Amino acid sequence: MTAMASDGSSAMHIRPVTPDLWPSLEDLFGRQGASSGCWCMYWRIGPAYSRRPRSENRDAFRALVEEGPPPGLIAFSGDRPVGWCQLTPRTDLLWLDRGPRAPRIDDTPVWSISCFYVRGSHRRQGVALALIQEAVRVARRRGIAVLEAYPIDLDAPRGTTNPFTGMASSFRKAGFVEVGRQPPARVIMRLDVSPPDDGDISGPKGEAIPRG
């Protein structure tokens, strides 16, 4: 997918994270490993990520990428990686059920858009929204019925200032609706994903995220 700038020029393109793109993801996450050395392992193993070397988190996440299917999407501005979001079945993210932030609200099988990382130079430029919109397109093509997310409502009092799960305002722009809330600021949002009008849910050749 290629997102367009307001002047009509090509702004960014977004691809599923396959093994050949690992160097790009590693470049994006940098020496810090994205958020505090997490390497996007928090929802998989919980606080244990902070009690082990960052290199161990990196190697664990690289193994997931190499094993497949791709665990998310990466956005590029030209050849430079500028943003990431995780897109997986909720059942892959065990800490969602164990922790208090995003309890399961029913038995609906969902895929989760669970975290983001955007390069500092490209924040507040619509990268996260573009990633959400592409995640919806991928889900629609692959026949995924429901997407779920756990963003932060920055307008809520005493809310966190670390919206690594995304901002509720961005998800609202993409059509998501609030279905639950963990006070004061954690919102559980969903989107019922409908197939295209022509009923074609097949992705382009090489499309990364399988039917869930």
Molecular structure report:
- The protein is of the alpha+beta class and 212 residues long.
- It has one domain: 3-Layer(aba) Sandwich (Aminopeptidase).
- Helices cover 25% and strands 24% of the residues.
- The chain has an 8-stranded mixed beta sheet, sandwiched between helices.
- Strand 3 and strand 4 form a beta hairpin.
- The two termini are 21 Å apart.
- The C terminus is likely disordered.
Task: Throw out a few tags for this protein.
disordered C terminus, 6 helices, Aminopeptidase, 8-stranded mixed sheet, 212 residues, alpha+beta
Structural class: alpha+beta
Give the biggest beta sheet: 8 strands, mixed
Number of strands: 8
Shape: globular
The residue-averaged pLDDT reads 85
Task: Give the CATH architecture.
Answer: 3-Layer(aba) Sandwich
- What do we call the CATH topology? Aminopeptidase
Q: What layout of secondary structure does this protein have?
A:
Layout lengths: L1 E3 L5 E7 L5 H8 L12 H4 L8 H14 L4 E6 L2 E10 L4 H5 L12 E8 L8 H16 L3 E4 L18 H6 L3 E6 L3 E7 L20
Parallel strand pairs: 5-6
Antiparallel strand pairs: 1-2, 2-3, 3-4, 4-5, 6-8, 7-8
Give a short overview.
The chain has 212 residues and is of the alpha+beta class. The chain is built from 6 helices and 8 strands. β3 and β4 form a beta hairpin.
